């Protein structure tokens, strides 16, 4: 039995995917993808599966554990983990080209992070207002 492990990150969210031979089922934190409560999350996670094609992902079961961050950060992390896992499991260069052409961040990841807050300020860039000139 073959197994592929993959990880995906986005901001503070970290997803770990286990891909093994199966019947095409996808679970995220123990919840089947079909009944996951956030619709935009479901659509984002389905992108790598739809691009791979039904004949590929119907042969595997995907189990994803995701923690940290917000809903959309988790969705992007899960999407990256699934795409990387499918590449590792099937080892097809054509699949990698399909993902790269659609969205490069599906494989590479997004390096942007939040800017740290500076001392004596409300936020990272906000400064005190001056009332004189």
Task: Describe this entry's structure for a reader.
The protein is α+β, with helices and mostly antiparallel strands. The chain has one domain: 2-Layer Sandwich (Ribosomal Protein S5, domain 2). Helices cover 36% and strands 23% of the residues. The protein has four helices and five strands. It has helices at residues 39-52, 54-57, 71-90, 93-102, and strands at residues 3-10, 13-21, 26-28, 31-32, 60-67. A five-stranded mixed β-sheet has the order 1-2-5-3-4. β1 (3-10) and β2 (13-21) form a beta hairpin. α1 runs parallel beside α3 (71-90). The longest helix is centred in the middle third of the chain and has 20 residues, at 71-90. The protein is elongated.
């Amino acid at each position: 039995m073959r197994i592929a492990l993959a990880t995906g990150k986005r901001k503070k969210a970290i997803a770990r995917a286990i891909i093994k031979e199966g019947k095409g089922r996808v679970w995220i934190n123990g919840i089947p993808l079909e009944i996951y409560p956030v619709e935009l999350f479901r659509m984002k996670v389905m992108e790598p599966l739809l691009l791979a094609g039904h004949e590929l992902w119907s042969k595997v079961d995907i189990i994803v554990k995701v923690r940290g961050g917000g809903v959309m950060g988790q969705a992007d992390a899960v999407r990256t983990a699934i795409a990387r896992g499918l590449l590792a499991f099937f080892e097809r260069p054509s699949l990698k080209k399909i993902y790269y052409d659609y969205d490069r961040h599906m494989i590479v990841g997004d390096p942007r992070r939040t800017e740290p807050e500076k001392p004596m300020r409300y936020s990272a860039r906000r400064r005190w207002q001056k009332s004189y000139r």
